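Re-run requested by the PI after the first attempt was lost when the workstation crashed. Everything re-entered from the original request form. Ligand of interest: shikimate-3-phosphate.
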Amino acid sequence: MNQTGTQVQNIILIGFMGCGKSTIGRELKRVLGFALVDTDAEIEARADCKITEIFASLGEVEFRDLEAAVIADLLEKNPSSTVISTGGGAILREENREILRKLGYVVWLRASPETIYQRTKKNRERPILQTDNPRAVIAELLEKRTPLYRECAHLVIDVAGLNRAEIAAGILESAHYYFSQQQS
Ligand code: S3P
């Protein structure tokens, strides 16, 4: 429920880099006709530069502050019928996790460290993975973040072996059930 007591039907996608949040966000938007908000795109629009540049010139803490501000403003805007795709570290701050759950049905898209490595290795737009040993960074961050994704999520989907239509269909069925229970 939102502040006015009406039902909020948003779907929030969380999960590590490379697990398909943006792709599935677009698929859900297409299938449901929902609005789509991508928190990374929102951060870039506000800062008027790319995430790589924000990390390089301002650093990660500043990036996390921007990310938290975007998430806090989302709650303020009180969206409905919206898919919200978040950055992989959006769950790091407790206040973010709380807001994401308030915003709607939170879906954790999960994959193994090796799948994540394979899906991210050619991408140069993720500053955290631009290291000599991205496999080690992925393993370390996953260990730290897994309990936080778990704490925040209403639903977990293991994405390996599923195509975007199958993932979206699974989310829709579960979200439909969740929202119907909220109403009763
Ligand atoms: C980050 C994930 C990125 C982006 C930033 C930091 C992270 O988003 O927010 O590079 O800490 O996991 P994606 O998960 O969409 O790649």
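Saved to the shared folder this time. The CA atoms of residues 18 and 118 lie 9 Å apart.
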